[in-house]
Design a protein that fits this description.
By secondary structure, this protein is an alpha+beta fold. 24% of the residues lie in helices and 25% in strands. The chain has 4 helices and 9 strands. It has a 6-stranded antiparallel β-sheet with strand order 1-2-3-9-4-7. It has a 3-stranded antiparallel β-sheet with strand order 6-5-8, with no helix packed on it. A hairpin with a 4-residue loop joins strand 1 and strand 2. Helix 2 crosses helix 3. The longest helix is centred in the N-terminal third of the chain and has 24 residues. It is globular and about 45 Å long. The relative contact order is 0.17.
């Protein structure tokens, strides 16, 4: 798969079961979105540049995607990446406000990344997230390019941000902004978890460039 494995120690049984449930839900979401779009696995593979086997494994929860893979899938399936987030209790959903305990989550267990949506589910002109990166976590092994802009602020820990093949090690208090068309990726090369506020503008007409 194109995401890096977690570098944490062995997990207990409840944690493994929870991760399995997350993997299963994400795989079912990909399959249902593909079927709703009337696409075959081959169609999605062609649109994303991923292999047939990778798409099949994702749908059967045999592999976990990286952030880059989810971005490619969102483009191919013509949905915002927020479609892959875990849903919250409808009673807790408000139009303009997101309470701390009602954040929608995206847990990429293989990549070591937890992405929490800080903006409401309705699509707007920007999306705000809090990212938690475990030691060794990354966005994937390949660079990503698409339309729009990205910006962020390091709350704690360290983030290594790669922009057009140049690495920038950012510490708590540092911030950034760049056009998303610049080839980019990120990781946490330290032994401490990192927390990052991440801002992005929704895609317009993306091409699944790497």
């Amino acid at each position: 798969m194109d995401g890096r494995g977690e570098t944490n120690g062995p997990k207990d049984a409840p944690a493994i079961e929870a991760d399995d449930a997350v993997d299963q839900r994400l795989g079912e979401t990909v399959r249902l979105l593909r079927q709703r779009a009337g696409l075959s696995i081959q169609d999605v593979a062609t649109k994303t540049g991923l292999s047939n086997g990778m798409i099949s494994q994702l749908e059967r929860a045999r592999a976990m995607p990286s952030i880059r893979t989810l971005r490619l899938l969102s483009i191919a399936l013509d949905v915002p990446i927020s479609y892959f987030f875990e849903t919250t209790d409808p009673a807790d959903v408000q139009r303009y406000i997101v309470r701390k305990n009602s954040r929608r989550l995206l847990r990429l267990t293989a990549s070591g990344v937890v992405k929490e949506a800080l903006t409401p589910a309705d699509q707007g002109q920007l999306e705000l997230y809090e990212l938690t990166l475990n030691p060794g976590a990354s966005s994937g092994t390949d660079f990503l390019q698409h339309t729009g802009e990205k910006a962020g602020y390091i709350l704690s820990g360290s983030l290594r941000l790669w922009l057009d093949n140049q690495a920038h090690l950012l510490e708590a208090g540092d911030s950034f902004r760049f056009p998303s068309i610049v080839p980019h990726m990120f990781d946490n090369p330290t032994q401490q978890a990192a927390r990052v506020i991440w801002v992005t503008t929704p895609r317009q007409t993306d091409s699944p460039a790497g």
